[in-house]
């Protein structure tokens, strides 16, 4: 992430320098179009494109993190927190992590929809919210693939 911030800062500084060069070139030529002003404008335009690219790259990274954090929060809501509480203090908790099988985006979306439907059914007071063992028609099995054979 530091490299993205540095790239964005560098692109911004170059853009400001290029805009200063354009203003100085325009001022030196008494607002007339010259080869020097055209060159300064070309450099400004190139730096503007580089700045846009750096902003886009940073935005993509922020969006990726937002989606990842949202997915992790959804998994935490469904399964509980990742760290086990064993009463030991002063440790960073890395060795206390419980392994959760990774979820694909499709599987996560299916689970999210299933949870939403269950919440809606519970809010409406539907008796069908609790699946019966003999009723296997149309129910969505939200267990991970590893648990389906049990």
Continuous helix count: 3
Instruction: Quickly count the domains.
Output: 2
Q: What distance separates the N and C termini?
A: 43 Å
Order of helical and strand elements: HHH
* β-strand amount: under 5%
Strand tally:
0
Low-pLDDT sequence parts = 84-89, 135-139
Class by alpha and beta content: mainly alpha
- Write down the overall geometry: rod-shaped
**Average of the residue pLDDT scores:** 74
Biggest pleated sheet: none
The share of residues in helices is 55-70%
Rg, Å, rounded: 28 Å
GO cellular component, one term: mediator complex
Region (Disordered): 126-150
Protein name: Mediator complex subunit 29
Organism: Ceratodon purpureus (Fire moss)
Structure, described:
With 150 residues, this protein is mainly α. It folds into two domains: 2-79; 101-132. The chain contains three helices and no strands. Helix 1 (2-28) packs antiparallel against helix 2. It starts with a helix and ends in a 27-residue tail after the last helix. Residues 84-89 and 135-139 have low confidence and may be disordered.
Supply database-style keywords:
MED32, mainly alpha, Mediator complex subunit 29, 150 residues, 61% helix
Brief overview, please?
The chain is mainly α and 150 residues long. The protein is 61% helix and 0% strand.
């Amino acid at each position: 992430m530091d490299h993205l911030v540095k790239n964005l800062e560098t692109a911004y500084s170059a853009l400001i320098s290029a805009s200063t060069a354009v203003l100085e070139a325009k001022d030196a030529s008494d607002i007339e179009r010259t080869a020097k002003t055209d060159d300064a404008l070309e450099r400004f335009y190139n730096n503007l494109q580089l700045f846009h690219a750096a902003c886009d790259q940073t935005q993509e990274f922020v969006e990726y993190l937002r989606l990842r954090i949202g997915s992790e929060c959804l998994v935490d809501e469904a399964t509980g927190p990742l760290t086990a509480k064993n009463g030991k203090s002063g440790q960073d908790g890395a060795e206390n992590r419980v392994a959760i099988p990774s979820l694909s985006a499709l599987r996560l979306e299916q689970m999210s929809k299933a949870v939403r439907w269950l919440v809606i059914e519970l809010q409406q007071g539907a008796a069908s919210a609790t699946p019966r063992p003999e009723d296997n028609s149309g129910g969505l099995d939200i267990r991970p693939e590893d648990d389906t054979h049990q």
